[in-house]
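Form 7-S
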Amino acid sequence: MFRLPIGDFFERGIDFLKVHGESFFNALKESVLFIIQHFENLLQWIPWWMLILIFVILAFSLSGKKLAIFTGLGLTFIYSLDLWSETLDTLSLVLSSTLFTLLIGIPLGVAMSKNDNTQKILQPILDFMQTMPAFIYLIPSVIFFGLGKMPGAIATIIFAMPPVVKLTNLGIRQVPKDVIEAAISFGCTQKQMLRKVQIPLALPTILTGINQTIMLSLSMVVISAMIGARGLGEVVYSGVTQMKIGKGFEGGIAVVILAIILDRLTQSLGIHKKRKQNNK
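Output:
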């Protein structure tokens, strides 16, 4: 039976990019690692009790005392497991990957909302990115950037990008037409319309996309431990490969606590923005 050599074509394409795009990939590697390192240095510089206090205050201001209590107890519990350094490594990788994802994803979502042809082109690409198994992204990332945090960050950015692009597009398209017509009648330019009308009204939907992006980033960071990304994922992965069930369980619990805190914080931020809009 005839076999389509799709894998061979993919390998040739990767080899071509590796040879002809070396300077680009080196520049990308330096910039991403620069951001990751600064996040790590900042989080490591802040005393553990002060960082927990910052998260507790943030949780209380956004959601109330229940989330604040859970945040304080959860992060203190992680510290008591002696996994604080690994948690900060994971958090810095999630934050830096999310930052790059938003810098790329939100403009793409805006472009999709402004042009139907752009949406028709990007929609299947985003669907492909979203349904591709997460482990597949590790292969080209390792080929281009070697082992360590960098390929983990790149794989995370690609894997976590579709939600924020799609929901940015959706949020802007759902802005009521009468609001847009009113803005036009007051003489709004296209840039003013986007900056002062469409993005503020679409912000709760965009924040939902950011929430999903952070959750996907966290799940991918754990998978990226297979290629040396360190953090809590390394604790879980070493527990599995070395049959240290207790160690793996502790790492898994820390990941769950961190995921719940980040999820509730971003959800509360979206609800907070929506309430402010409704009050206006």
